[in-house]
Amino acid sequence: MGQTIIEKIISRHSDxxxxxxxxADVEIDVRVARDFGGANVVKNLQxxxxxxxxxxxxxxxFDTNPGGSDQGYAANQxxxxxxxxxxxxxxxxxxxxxxxxxxxxxxxxxxxxxxxxTDSHANIMGAVxxxxxxMGDQDIAAAWANGSIWFKVPATIKLILKGTxxxxxxxxxxxxxxxxxxxxxxxxxxxxxxYGDIVDEMPLADRITIASMCxxxxxxxxxxxPNDEVMQFCNRNSGNFEPIAADADAEYKDTVEIDIDGxxxxxxxxxxxxxxxxxxxxxxxxxxxxxIGSCTNGRLEDLRMAADILRGKKVADSVILKIVxxxxxxxxxxxxxxxxxxxxxxxxxxxNAGCAGCAAGQIGQNGPGEVTVSTGxxxxxxxxxxxxxxxASPATAAASALSGVISREDDxxxxxxxxxxxxxxxxxxxxxxETPASTNKPxxxxxxxxLVNEDNIDTDMIFHxxxxxxxxxxxxxxxxxxxxxxxxxxPGKVQEGDLVITGPNFGCGSSRQQAVDCFSTLGVKALxxxxxxxxxxxxxxxxxxxxxxxxxLNSGLKNGTMVELDLETGDVxxxxxxxxxxxxxxxxxxxxxxxxxxxx
Length: 600
Known about the structure:
Blueprint: H1 5-12, E1 23-27, E2 30-34, H2 35-48, E3 58-61, H3 71-87, E4 90-92, H4 99-105, E5 114-117, E6 131-134, H5 137-146, E7 148-152, E8 156-162, H6 171-182, E9 191-196, H7 204-212, E10 221-223, H8 228-234, E11 254-259, E12 266-268, E13 276-278, H9 279-282, E14 289-293, H10 294-297, H11 300-310, E15 320-324, H12 328-337, H13 339-345, E16 348-350, E17 371-374, E18 388-391, H14 394-403, H15 421-432, E19 444-452, H16 459-462, H17 473-476, H18 490-493, E20 499-502, H19 514-522, E21 526-529, H20 534-543, E22 547-549, E23 562-566, E24 571-574, E25 577-580, H21 586-594
Parallel strand pairs: 2-3, 2-5, 3-4, 5-6, 8-9, 8-11, 9-10, 14-15, 14-17, 15-16, 17-18, 19-20, 20-21, 21-22
Antiparallel strand pairs: 1-7, 12-13, 19-23, 23-24, 24-25
Helix pairs in contact: 2-3, 2-5, 6-7, 11-13, 11-14
């Protein structure tokens, strides 16, 4: 039987040919920590008495706060700089841009490679036929120390883009259409391979845009078969990458067709990247700010797209336009082409290369009552600020900046007048209305339950990104569920030994370890959900926090019910009922009993 692309890559980086569901020890070619997670990676290594196995394959990338404008970030960055100098580890400092893009640009990653980072969008590497995976602090620390990490081989879903998009549809519109059809969990725990008549000629920038939003559909990675352009790009600096493709007789979990025939410009409405509608359906909605950038749409091609629409025109007086290139090389190329002048003449603020609005305090955040059109990949409540965020292509973003309302590029109305001070006030008011490892842990847990009856609870709801610089475990618990409406007071109500039961896809979103550790520091004994975000599940397992797979929200349980949970058998019992959960795997039980991945 043949293999899919992900099965081939993992097989070549482990000691045998793998199949879906197997757990393999995977050698990692490039091992990255970013500025917000890097300090915790180093602390994990130091606390466990571990060293870096291969500094040549290890590096820091400082991309979430390129200005070092927050004291927490500045301290973490300097801490990592000193560690890098002491141990000969590579460093792409605040001048360089987004780490995943740098890895592709610098030829560190190419077809068939493996790459991990404390970045939940490391699966961008699928654009060049590589396996990229976002991971938490303990995972990264273990890979730095061992050169490899355990990984459960995902099943693969074949996605076929059917038809020819309309003349105004861009790559962002295609991936939004994919998210709209598949939903937040449509690729949950799976790899995807992208095929279709338009794919063979799809340029690298478009592939990056599509691969980057795999995370928002719950996927592990979305892989493209490299075409000639991708091979030439990856090998332009004397690289020796070879093409990779799935075998003709590869076995897929499912084949899904995405109808993009005649596709028009699309947008995701605030709060949910999968809540996708045609731009025409929300056209005319006022806009206060526009953001163009992120790992999804910060390439040179994206800036050209915006400049073509904005050139010789002025942004509406009521709008602030913020633009952040993905990397320094993109910034320099845009400067050389005259794009920077075109964009600034139109009224844009252009920031340092980096992640921008996805990190608190950076360019692209918005305020209460503010309506933003963004080319980013996430618009979860609170992720990019306290206002509303519509996701769209650079073309739609630029058109909306000109008119002051959500607009298609072929239908740009006259600019709207700025909102009155009183209106802004009314809108704002409306929006505002460390634990030692232990062994021989119990495998039968008893505790009272909290039922959080919500699906797709993302990591910003669990632990908001404004607290990312918090690295002390004892400080994390107070922020648990701090951005989940109705549950902000959870830290004050929960008691040590309690269990938390939620809906599916719990922990979707970013790779932040704090979203796990905040529960551990509160004494939560276990989390129970039908499914988890792939990175979140790994982070919890590696931290020794039991994450149990079971659907218990409709089992008759009530808040405060005492239950007994057997991690070995999966039995869940209480006075008036019983249910079955998925028993722990050997790997999960071993890590749990050790007290964490790095415990010895």
